[in-house]
Design goal:
The complex is a heterodimer of chains A (362) and B (348). Chain A contains nine helices and eleven strands. Chain A is of the alpha/beta class. Chain A has two domains: 10-142, Response regulator (Rossmann fold, 3-Layer(aba) Sandwich), CATH 3.40.50.2300; 151-361, 2-Layer Sandwich (Heat Shock Protein 90). Chain A starts with 9 loop residues before the first strand and ends with a strand. Chain B has an eleven-stranded mixed sheet with strand order 2-1-3-4-5-11-9-10-8-7-6, sandwiched between helices. The chains are: A alpha/beta (362), B alpha/beta (348). Chains A and B meet through helix 1 and helix 4 of A and helix 1, helix 4, strand 6 and helix 5 of B.
Chain lengths: 362, 348
């Protein structure tokens, strides 16, 4: 009898005392071949050297009254220089985004059923999506040095479309091809709009924000997004997408690898601003509260204010809000790949209610 | 609307919005254009291009026998792989369609098994068929009945483990390995029992029911299942299993290719007609298949007669066990074209 082994490739620490979360996390850890060490609070974590744990999974619901950054700091004190992936069910949107202010946080994921405004500590919460968390952990353990593309988020055998974008005109053409592809699947208007927002903003970022000169200075970041640009041959952007009926996934890779974790965190934290398009009550001009008014972002940027003049990072915020998962893979100086996965099965409302996870692999 | 020549397409009979949307999405993602008609009699017959599947929603007429509905839809598409989905009285009607028609694929709608038996659905409570199930089924139709193992049912890149089995002792060790794998995934109680039962029955089938002698006669089928058996060097059975966090799949492939659809449906009728009590160790009752059907969310048979049988059980292990069981069981049957009429009784 021959077999392949089941040896763990590393260990992760889990800080949680929510039974359902622990179950879901255990399943996800096994997908990444990680063994686990559970603690019911940060003070119960063993003092560990950097690298002893691949990461710490911190359930913010262990103490909904304590600031997320404070909980992260307690974890960081026990597990120095160890990446932290935060989970939350209670007041999930705000607390997950708040946690990004801590420098060790490399990802945040809502628990299932937690994204609605009304979630409280009394709500019956499930754990995080096991498949999504398993994939996130697998990517962290595998540490790919090439852009991974959308395949890992889709059933094996899913056809992946690919385009190279060398100019803003190519960007428009590619967006058209992607939307035509999605249109064939009979996606509803709301789903198409989320998809359009995510794909357009990722490509705008790769064409305008990412390119650097030899000294590392941004080339097009200050240019109005309506001004056409052409990229050098070696700076072409690789766009890939696919759909397996349940998820539509688009990946956009530039060849600069300039994105910083701190930049991402700072931009996403704009969602805490009362004027943000998703979390706040009042959206910016041209948008409507609740995240529905994203259409203007893809029609020339009207209503997005500074988004049209580049560098504002609103594209990232809009993409994070539109996607169910936003994964950013950075190999410094070589490439940045942003992957947005959107749940397209069932109703758009159900998909939006699944919330948005963010993962940074750098 | 006419479909461009060369375009792969499928015909769907349904007037249930969520079903139409899910089918269009899943098949569209597989590169297949879907034409929908509300009644079997209104299906277009000559402008669909390269038709890869005909899918009939049995809920278009819940009072009518599945066989009749299917044969009416079938008229214009005599050679196209036939799929059926249902929400109303789903388990019984889908098994009827599978057992009595030439339907090779049956997929319950999401939410169907929470309805009272024979009850009409409350509009809005029923979703369409599972999109991953449909997508994987159509991809396999396009790719042919090979032996892909568990890969098509898991997210790309999910680790897959493989075990070779040639004897009863190997089978026990392989089973221990699968159970250990399930435990490492944090599965306990009913979920773990479902995995163990499915894996064991697939292996038992491959060791006892599938093997044939040179004359094509079953070698071990009449043996007590507690009696050890060994296979020849060129008769190795391969078990593959993996999990992507939400879906756990186990596939067992034997080199005999002795399983027929008739043998499967004869056993599945027991689900409909009531399961007789098993006698421990007695062979040939076919109860293994019935039990596997009752614990799996998908059961896939791929047969190349005389060459290969691969049976795959797909189990949803995300969320609660109850939610997983309520998803019901889809059955898919892929037979190599040259042998579609094969009536071998081997295996299940």
């Amino acid at each position: 009898m021959s077999s392949s082994g089941l040896r763990s490739v590393g260990r992760a620490a889990i800080v949680s005392r929510h039974a359902s979360t622990l179950k879901h996390v255990t399943q996800a850890l096994a997908v990444a071949n990680l063994s686990s060490r559970q603690a019911i609070g940060p003070s119960f974590l063993p003092r560990s050297a950097p690298g002893e744990f691949e990461l710490v999974l911190l359930d913010l619901d262990i103490d909904p009254a304590t600031a997320p950054t404070e909980l992260c700091a307690q974890v960081a004190a026990a597990c120095k220089n160890t990446p932290i992936l935060v989970l939350a069910g209670v007041n999930a949107r705000h607390r997950l985004v708040q946690s990004l202010a801590h420098p060790d946080v490399v990802g945040c994921m809502p628990k299932l059923g937690a994204w609605s405004e009304t979630a409280t500590s009394d709500a019956k919460l499930e754990g995080p999506d096991e498949q999504e968390l398993g994939l996130a952990l697998r990517r962290r353990v595998e540490r790919a040095i090439q852009p991974s593309g959308p395949a890992a988020y889709l059933l094996a055998g899913t056809v992946i479309e690919e385009r190279l974008v060398g100019s803003s005109a190519d960007k428009d053409e590619t967006l058209g091809a992607l939307l035509a592809d999605a249109g064939r699947f009979g996606l509803g208007d709301e789903k198409l709009r989320r998809l359009e927002t995510a794909a357009d903003e990722l490509m705008l970022n790769a064409v305008y924000d990412a390119p650097r000169d030899e000294r590392g200075k941004p080339l097009h970041a200050d240019i109005d997004r309506r001004t056409p640009v052409t990229l050098a041959a070696q700076a072409q952007v690789r766009v890939r997408w696919g759909c397996d009926g349940r998820s539509f996934v688009v990946s956009v890779a530039d060849r600069f690898g300039a994105l910083e974790r701190a930049t991402v965190a700072a931009h996403v934290q704009r969602l805490l601003d009362a004027r943000s398009p998703r979390l706040g009550r009042a959206g910016p001009p041209g948008t409507t509260a609740g995240g529905a008014g994203l259409g203007s972002a893809t029609t020339g940027g009207a209503g997005l204010g500074s988004a049209t003049t580049g560098g504002a990072g609103l594209g990232l915020v809009l993409t994070y809000s539109a996607a169910n998962t936003l994964a950013l893979q950075v190999v410094r100086g070589r490439f940045t790949e942003a992957t947005a996965a959107l749940h397209v099965a069932g109703s758009n409302r159900t998909a939006v209610a699944r919330g948005s996870a963010l993962h940074i692999y750098d | 609307m006419q479909v461009a020549k060369g375009t792969r397409s499928a015909a769907l009979v349904s007037r249930h919005g969520p079903t139409c949307r899910r089918v269009a999405q899943s098949l569209g993602a597989a590169g297949v254009h879907v034409r929908t008609s509300p009644f079997p009699s209104e299906l277009p017959v000559d402008d669909l291009g390269d038709v890869v599947a005909l899918l009939v929603d049995l809920d278009v007429s819940p009072g009518e026998s599945p066989g009749l509905l299917v044969s009416e839809a079938r008229r214009g598409y005599p050679d196209v792989p036939l799929m059926a989905t249902a929400g109303v009285d789903a388990r019984a009607r889908l098994l009827d369609a599978l057992c009595e028609g030439d339907v090779n694929h049956v997929i319950p709608k999401r939410g169907a098994l929470t309805l009272p038996r024979g009850g009409m659905p409350v509009l809005g409570s029923l979703e369409g068929p599972d999109e991953h199930d449909l997508f994987a089924a159509v991809r396999r139709l396009l790719d042919g009945p090979e032996s892909p193992g568990v890969t098509p049912y898991l997210l790309a890149g999910a680790p897959v483990h493989e075990v070779s089995v040639r004897s009863s002792e190997d089978k026990d060790r392989a089973l221990e390995r699968v159970v250990a794998f399930g435990e490492s995934m944090g599965l306990t109680g009913e979920k773990l029992r479902r995995v163990e039962l499915a894996a064991e029955e697939l292996l038992m089938n491959a060791l006892y029911d599938a093997p044939r002698n040179a004359d094509g006669i079953a070698r071990n089928a009449s043996l007590d299942r507690r009696q050890p058996v060994a296979l020849g060097a060129d008769e190795t059975v391969h078990m593959r299993y993996g999990c992507d966090g939400q879906t756990l799949a186990v596939a067992v492939a034997d080199p005999f290719g002795s399983l027929s659809k008739k043998a499967v449906t004869d056993r599945l009728r027991k689900v409909r007609d009531g399961i007789p009590k098993p006698n421990a160790g007695v062979a040939g009752a076919g109860l293994g298949l019935v039990m596997t059907y009752s614990v799996a969310n998908q059961l896939i048979f791929a047969v190349s007669p005389g060459r290969l049988t691969e049976v795959t059980a797909v189990l949803h292990v995300g969320g609660s066990n109850r939610a997983a069981q309520e998803r019901g069981t889809a059955v898919h049957f892929y037979v190599a074209p040259s042998s579609a009429a094969g009536e071998g009784s081997g295996g299940w």
